[in-house]
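Annex B. Sample input.
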Amino acid sequence: MVVPTWAWFATIGGLLVLLAIDLFIVDRKPHEVTVGEAGRWVAFYVGCAIAFGGAIWAFSGGTYAGEFFAGYITEYSLSVDNLFVFLIIMSAFKVPRIHQHKVLLIGILLALVMRGAFIAVGAVAIAKFSWVFYLFGAFLIYTAWNLSRQGLGGEDEEYEENALTKIARKVFPVTDTYHGANSFVRIDGKRFVTPMFIVMIAIGTADLLFAVDSIPAIFGLTKEPFLVFTANAFALMGLRQLYFLLGGLLKKLVYLSVGLAVILAFIGVKLVLEALHTNSLPFLNGGEPLPVPVPNIVVSLAVIVSVLAITTIASLLKSKRDEERAIAGGTAESTAAESPAGESTTESGEPVDHRR
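Annex B, continued. Sample output.
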């Protein structure tokens, strides 16, 4: 895929315009983002991603468009796991809800810049060393194994500040309270940073850690740096709106980790197969490629969409059953508590007449 320099600049410029519009409309006045507002913005960003994929289809063909959509869906689904960590960080720092939108915006912008650097390094490594796919594949399979053994988490999970936030606290004097949406304040002539500044670092670095998984995963779907970058950009841009849209629904995606593990394992195996198919390691098959089948992008896209659909449906069904059991259990306990001592009751709560 040949992408001229002007296309890179035009794409980055378009993404910046979208962010500027979002910043001007949503963040010009701090407020709590409603579910309806978040839903409209998520639909807007998803629509932008679909339009961008359609443009790729028109100018570069269906194969590259399929790679973009596969990468975008994968990055977006992996980002849902980020949201739970964001929720923990927001709770740990007690960020006021009216300022959470700004925190996510700055944190995600930092993550986008850092991911861009990751993508550049990954593209150079893949271009020079084809055996990197073996490492990427093995790492994704290992990550999938670990992910399959853990759940989405719970409310009692605690956040521990990473090294960067601890260094920031040592380097900069930090106020005890928030000062509106300000990251820096001056008190008695001395400059301080607020908890807002620290939480932005926490959000950005947390997403960077997730990039360690997601960047190798998307390189398993496309080797085009342009598609890798744009898929990540669109996924991140819609991420903060998704945070407010999902809300309590996030806790109901109980099988999310299992579904993501399946996707990562599939991509990991795909990477290993591609590495074998283009093998150049002298100690393996004499440095010659092996005739192994490699799933094409249509198969990859079908697997990703199917796994996500099954995972979501299964999660919601389980959550519904658990809620019904909890309600039934609460009703039974309430009925038992209200019944006279020593008196049996029927399922409907009516006393049983033992004289019959």
